[in-house]
Structures are given as C-alpha cells and as structure tokens.
C-alpha cells in the first residue's frame, strides 16, 4: 500500500531545503512565477537542472509555451519573496524590480537583494510524473552572488547560519 499524501508531505517537509522562485513569460503575456523547493542539478556537461511544478500551477503552461524559465535561489531575507510566489496574489511582480532574460525567452530575472543566485534556462525536456511535471532546463546563463541562503523546513523559513559559518566570505 502506498504512503498517503499527508505522510508524504510530512516526510519531505522534515528535510531542510533551499528555496527557489521559478519565473517565465509567454510571448505577448505577462510574467508568471511560483515558489519551489524541489529542484536539483542533473548534469554539468551539458549544464542541466530540474525543477518540479505542480500540474495545477498557473505558471506551468507559460513555461511550456515559452520553452524557457529562470530559477532564482533565495538568500537570507528572501522569505517574503518565497511566500509571495507561493501564494496567489493578482500580481506577484507588483513592486519588484525585474528585467526580461536575454537568453531564456524573456522570462523575468528578479533584481532583488533577496536573490542569492539565478539560472536562465531553455526548456530541454518535460516529464509528467504523478501530480507534477519535471522540467529539465539547459542553463544558458548563471549568476551567483555572495549572500547566504535561506532554508525551508516544516513550513518555516530560516537562515542557514551553521553551514555558513564555514563558508568563505567573498
């Protein structure tokens, strides 16, 4: 018998994870985005990453149409941004500075101190798995800044201070 969805969420919710905001823009459409903590590296050569998007996500159709997206890793102080893109406000981008990507189909690149790093991606593959789609992105450009990351565990955002103590400062 398979594990029920509640136990599944409790199991994975107990794992501290980094947090990302994934953005996309369809031709002629506005920007879209969602918060994600299911993402990982796939390959260094070629540079591939994956993110998982709920089939109910309003951003997923935009990613599929645009065939491009940007993954923004959140820094300490990024909890509000993570909550904003996890929710359903009418305009998640209201008051945010962002620019269209020049290499990822005009997907929004958020220009905020709450962003630790971002990867501009071309959609390389999509696999439907259960209630999510696995989006594989070919990294066309990546930028990493010296901020510290934020973690998410059991519904709480927190700083990653212990791991950062050993991290060299840039």
UniProtKB/TrEMBL annotation:
Highest taxon of the source?
Bacteria
Q: Does the keyword Isomerase apply?
A: no
Xref: Gene3D superfamilies: Electron Transport, Fmn-binding Protein, Chain A (2.30.110.10)
The protein's GO terms of the molecular function aspect are: FMN binding; riboflavin reductase (NADPH) activity
PANTHER family per record? FLAVIN REDUCTASE, FMN REDUCTASE (NADH) RUTF
Keywords, comma-separated and alphabetical: Oxidoreductase
Domain (Flavin reductase like): residue spans on this chain: 12-159
Q: Which Pfam families match?
A: Flavin_Reduct
List the InterPro entries hit by this protein, alphabetically: Flavin_Rdtase-like_dom, NADH-dep_flavin_reductase, Split_barrel_FMN-bd
Q: Report the protein name in the record.
A: Flavin reductase family protein
């Amino acid at each position: 018998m398979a594990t029920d969805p509640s136990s599944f969420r409790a199991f994975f919710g107990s794992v501290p994870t980094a947090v990302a905001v994934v953005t996309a823009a369809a031709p002629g459409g506005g920007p879209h985005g969602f918060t994600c903590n299911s993402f990982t590296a796939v390959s260094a050569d070629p540079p591939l990453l994956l993110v998982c998007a709920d089939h109910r996500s309003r951003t997923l159709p935009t990613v599929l149409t645009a065939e491009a997206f940007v993954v923004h890793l959140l820094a300490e102080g990024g909890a509000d941004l993570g909550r904003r893109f996890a929710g359903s406000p009418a305009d998640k981008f209201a008051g945010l500075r962002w620019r269209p990507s020049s290499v990822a189909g005009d997907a929004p690149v958020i220009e905020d101190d709450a962003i630790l790093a971002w990867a501009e991606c071309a959609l390389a593959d999509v696999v439907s798995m259960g209630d999510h789609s696995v989006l594989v992105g070919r990294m066309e450009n990546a930028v990493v800044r010296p901020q510290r990351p934020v973690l998410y565990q059991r519904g709480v955002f927190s700083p990653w201070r212990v791991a950062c103590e050993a991290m060299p400062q840039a």
